[in-house]
Amino acid sequence: REKHLPLLRYESGQEEAFIRHHLLYGKLMRALESNQLSLVYQPQVDISSGKLLGVEALARWRDPQEGWIAPAEFIHVAEQSGLIHPLTHWIIRQGIAQCSEWHQTGLDISVSLNLSARCFDDTELVNHLLETLRQTRAKPEWITLELTESTFMDNPEKALRLVKQFHDMGFRISIDDFGTGYSSLAYLKNLNADELKIDRGFVMNLPDSPDDIAIVQSTIHLAHNLGLKVVAEGIETAAASLKLRELGCDIAQGYYYSRPMPPEVLDLWAASVARQHSFDSPEA
Ligand code: C2E
Ligand code: MG
Ligand code: MG
Ligand code: MG
Predict the structure, then answer these.
(1) How far is CA 283 from CA 46, 145, 280, in A?
(2) Which atom of ligand 1 is nearest to the CA of 88?
(3) pLDDT tens, 170-225?
(4) From the CB of 58, is ligand 1 less than 6 Å away?
(5) For the chain, which ranges sit under pLDDT 70?
(6) Which of 19, 45, 149, 171 sits at a 20 to 30 Å CA gap from 163?
(7) Cα–Cα distances in Å, from 217 out to 20, 54, 165, 214, 259?
(8) Predicted structure pTM score
(9) What is the pLDDT of residues 9-23, one digit of tens each?
């Protein structure tokens, strides 16, 4: 009994968080079963031409009583409880099926999917990815898997092995939120990554912050020297976009271009961007 006591004691002020966690856990489990979750897609564009290259899939959950619940909150609950595995399976199936549908309608864009660090405990993940590719007839090179640096903290060898497996299966690999976690340049070197995403924290004060300019510029050089494409996330202004373009960034993502959208709205957005392109291009 004595041994279990610490589990039952909470820091004062923690009771509420504990109760909320359990409430959300139950709700999230039911939401997964009853299809209350959805994916929205945020454009990633060529920073020089504005051409739509791909989208990042972001999970959304609207609870009937509580309304929208932030991904940061429910992903955390999912990670703590093991629900992250069925949740990630759902996200993979939904995102890859959508990508396949876009390709069938002639919209040749990539879809980026976020994988949490906990996904590396999932022994069914590789099978699920293969099975989904087979069922949707999607090509793995259409799909980018976004991983954060924290993925490599707990068990670097295992994580590197799995990432190599994804790479060998043909998926593109992206390092998300670069620079915010425990970065080791050795991981970058051994990772077979294709892309590096500069975190919003380094982007939001551009072009005014000389420190952020220095960090972003160095990161872009490093990435390019390693053969990686660079995506900047969280671009909110024309001035930030211009600065990133000047610094040699490849791909842009952020509210300045578009908020994440449901797939049917993305179709309209993509059509209007494509029209814009045919006006801009000399052949038109
Ligand atoms: P992330 O992967 O770094 O995703 C980028 C976040 O920045 C998204 O927040 C996006 O809506 C937001 N964002 C994009 N452009 C801007 C901008 O210009 N300004 C600002 N202020 N924000 C911008 P969201 O959708 O709330 O997701 C937050 C985090 O939750 C994600 O960060 C990711 O770590 C996690 N997440 C979301 N969906 C999934 C998922 O399907 N699976 C997993 N494992 N994690 C997810
Ligand atoms: Mg991401
Ligand atoms: Mg990110
Ligand atoms: Mg981020």
Answers:
(1) 19, 35, 9
(2) 42
(3) 999 999 998 887 767 777 888 889 999 999 999 999 999 999 999 999 999 999 99
(4) yes
(5) 1-12, 183, 280-284
(6) 45
(7) 42, 23, 31, 5, 26
(8) 0.93
(9) 556 677 888 888 899
Closest ligand 1 atom, CA of 40? 25
Asked if residue 94 has its Cβ within 6 Å of ligand 1, the reply is: no
How many whole angstroms from its chain centre is CA 237? Answer: 21
Instruction: Give the type of residue at 220.
Output: I
Task: For residue 260, give the ligand nearest its CA.
Answer: 1
Question: Phi/psi class of residue 35: alpha, beta or left (left: φ > 0; alpha: ψ in -120 to 50)?
Answer: left
Q: At 102, is the secondary structure helix, strand, or coil?
A: helix
Most informative mutation of 58, 93, 251 for ligand 1 (most atoms within 8 A of CB): 58
| Residue 146 near residue 112 (C-beta atoms within 8 A) | yes
Q: Which of 99, 114, 121, 176 to mutate to test the pocket of ligand 1 (most atoms within 8 A of CB)?
A: 114
Interval between CA 42 and ligand 1 midpoint (Å): 9
Could you tell me the CA-to-CA distances from 35 to 29, 59, 63, 247 in Å, in that order?
Answer: 10, 12, 11, 43
Q: Which residues surround ligand 3, an ion (CB under 5 A)?
A: 176-177, 233
Quote the CA–CA distance of 172 and 203 in Å, as a whole number: 23
